């Protein structure tokens, strides 16, 4: 392992990913290789590059949704902690890292039937043993900041609009205090007012020393939140068109 600053929370070392399509005669689709960068506490690193270059795949590997083909994904919650390598972690270790070290706001909310919006948001706090009334109160404060009408709190989000679902998803991801936070286009279906709220929430996390890695297609949002941009084109494993 290379040397890292005490502030470093997330390190990718020579990470590679390709997909094999077993339904189409085992076609091999290389996506990225030699992906190497680090994210420090208090930084917002934005993944850049054209559509299909592998930005979401990188986030999914870091969260353990996609297997890591080669290299290391090192993460730790605080300066003195040893790094855990997600690339070789067991499912149980991945579960523990997700509870305490790395949070993820995906593009789409996976709504659970019959569970109210308030409980969907509060659930990560329930899982940490926070008293239900206190967890729901914190969830309501965040939903109110995100302008979700109070009339919707007790309804399951399945029938909500795209922007309403996204705000429930953001509230769920931002409610906990994970030291590393992954954001996959959190502002994609939001209006200007709510985009501003998300930018503020990101700035607050950053101030508290969270290491943030995100994808933002919206140039304005990217300009407001990014402390650094990592261009994923530099790690593309595909042949360039002549
Ligand atoms: N589960 C999968 N199975 C097969 N191929 C996949 C899978 N996930 C991603 N890919 C392929 O990997 C490539 C990179 O996809 P990815 O979603 O990471 O790109 P991206 O840079 O995030 O794109 P966008 O900006 O359009 O969201 C694409 O060619 C995609 O088709």
From TrEMBL:
InterPro entries hit by this protein: AAA+_ATPase, ABC_transporter-like_ATP-bd, ABC_transporter-like_CS, CP_lyase_PhnL, P-loop_NTPase
Xref: Pfam families: ABC_tran
Keyword ATP-binding recorded: yes
Record keywords, A-Z: ATP-binding, Lyase, Nucleotide-binding
Limits of the ABC transporter domain: 10-242
UniProt cross-references to SUPFAM superfamilies, sorted A to Z: P-loop containing nucleoside triphosphate hydrolases (SSF52540)
Any one Gene Ontology molecular-function term assigned to this protein's record: ATP binding
Family: Belongs to the ABC transporter superfamily.
Name assigned to this protein: Phosphonate C-P lyase system protein PhnL
Designated gene of the protein: phnL
